[in-house]
MFS transporter
Amino acid sequence: MRTERGSGSEAAIRGRGTAGGPGAGPGLVVVLTCAMAFSMMQLFILGAFGPRLVGQLGISRTVLGLTTTVGFGLAALLSPVAGRLVDRVGPRRCMVGLFLLSALALALIGAAPGAAVLFIAVALGGVPQALANPATNKVILAAYRPDRRGAVTGFKQSGVQFGAFAAGLPLSLLAAGIGWRGAVWAAAGIAVLAGVWAAVALPPDRAQLRAAVPGTTHSRSGVVGRLAVFSLLLGCGIASVNTYLALFGAQRLGLSSTMAAALVAVLGAAGIGGRVAWARIAGRPGWAEVLPATLAAGAVGAAVLLGLAVVAHPLAWAGTIAVAVFAVSANAVSMVLVIQRAAPGRAGIDSALVSAGFFAGFAVGPPLFGVMVSAAGYGPGWLLVAVEFAGAAVVALPRGLRDARGASA
């Protein structure tokens, strides 16, 4: 049986929450979801508007691709610092800063005359990426009872997919009417408004508890370390799918550009549903510990289906849905586990360390996949993704088994 004692507001918050009180309704969930969406919006926009940027700014496809690697790499490096900052100054201030920095990064993209300013914008956008999970997780701890945190975490994690959808459809349609720069500036304006809304809607920052609970720091740091490695391997595989799925559909399966893009749309839509559903389940007692390994194992099968699509093309759709349901959703479940296990006063830094692993995977995975495809084709490439997911399952399994035995003792 675990007990958490100590003085300070967070210890009280962790036990009781404030669900049902002012600010803990649907409006707060929307703010959290928007924070996750805007934290990566600059990268989504660079991807969605890539053809326009290549044509009008005269940059190469290689340079455009490097923006994603730089963005996630910087977010991984900045995450530990961002986590400590959230624990020190509070999530409300950090989330307002997240929206304003996202707006500034988007405004720079809209004004960019060439590659140099794009890289500056991506570098600046690494700060909101690093702040997003620590700040939103701390808000969830402060505003919701334990029995609601899993579901709320699933909704806010789905914000990443909503951000990709917004860049790929509404903003793209807007760009057709007013130009891509106008569409990006419109997104920057919305980010500013979201920052104002966050300042009003979020619970006030409280004094943070510094001292750890005796006897728990070592065991919980072990959980965080294991989840960081799990997220690294998971991120490698997910990023490879995100980056190359449409290209695989067009080059290897002979799909039209529209149908290849539809694969990505299916991935996003299924990811939203999967994250919400599995995170809700993870919020039940005992489930969060065993789900990461289970979902990663399911993701292995999803990668195998993508590989088999080379000979049976319809399997690409089944594999895409399975990647979303298992791999993409596993990231949300890992955040539920972080919220449940974070030591008092350390929810920000613990969330940041796990996020750093995930961002590092996003920076490393696509280049490795690209090298494999260039050398041996898409079949071995998807096998590499399956191995990465299998590694994630192995990393997660031992801890899950020990927790399961402890819970049943």
